């Protein structure tokens, strides 16, 4: 058995890791909640954002500062991709959207492979090995920063969705697309805005991940697998569910690594995934159809 201090330390580290999972998952569940499709290009967009943050660092800009222009750039990119590629190519059929996003994923990944090969890259920042001393546990500074940024993004998303006209339009389209269009909401525009917000969230996640992680053309795949689990756990389309589910999955992964070994750290994640599908398919905060 491990001492309480070690278990508490594992839980705290799991929460810090889970915050990044939550941020990646929020982008996935937001797109699902409004467009009602799974975005198969999710991992590839995250990878592209990490490469953008990497080359911004090569140009002398810290990843935490580069988020100020990478996130807006990826919002614009996400908006354009949904408005002028995914939307027209799908012809209003959700099955076509799935195929288009899968095709985008393959194209983005292979472009990155052709441009940067399969080499793994990392960066060195002054705070990369800094820690926060709580007396009984040392927390890595990059993950503490990532946790703080995730909290800020969550607060901004909540304000956007509940306090702005755009947020009200997003919730209206998510609830009833036809009714929203009948009262004058531009559904096509809202679809593109939502996709853009999802891409911006991925850009923020990429910028906070890079100081403590690496980047290669396939790095997003690992995170998107966990994100699918988080979305199912929290409830498909539930933003609060994705936030809480991400934190829970981070803690489960950390405790699994502690008790079963680092190589089996993600075993607990997929056990949770199976149990949720068996016991509560709608997730913690999902609504029944």
Topology:
Elements: H1 4-35, H2 42-58, H3 63-90, H4 94-116, E1 131-133, E2 138-140, H5 141-163, H6 165-175, H7 177-182, H8 187-209, H9 219-234, H10 239-260, H11 267-279
Antiparallel strand pairs: 1-2
Helix pairs in contact: 1-5, 1-8, 1-9, 1-10, 2-3, 2-4, 2-8, 2-9, 3-4, 3-8, 5-6, 5-8, 6-8, 9-10, 9-11, 10-11
Structure description:
This protein has a domain at 24-223. 74% of the residues lie in helices and 2% in strands. It has helices at 4-35, 42-58, 63-90, 94-116, 141-163, 165-175, 177-182, 187-209, 219-234, 239-260, 267-279, and strands at residues 131-133, 138-140. Helix 6 (165-175) packs across helix 8 and helix 9 (219-234) packs parallel to helix 11. The termini are far apart. The model has no long low-confidence stretch (mean pLDDT 89). Belongs to the binding-protein-dependent transport system permease family. LivHM subfamily. The chain crosses the membrane at residues 6-30, 37-57, 63-85, 97-116, 136-161, 190-214, 220-237, 267-287. It holds the Pfam family BPD_transp_2. It is a multi-pass membrane protein.
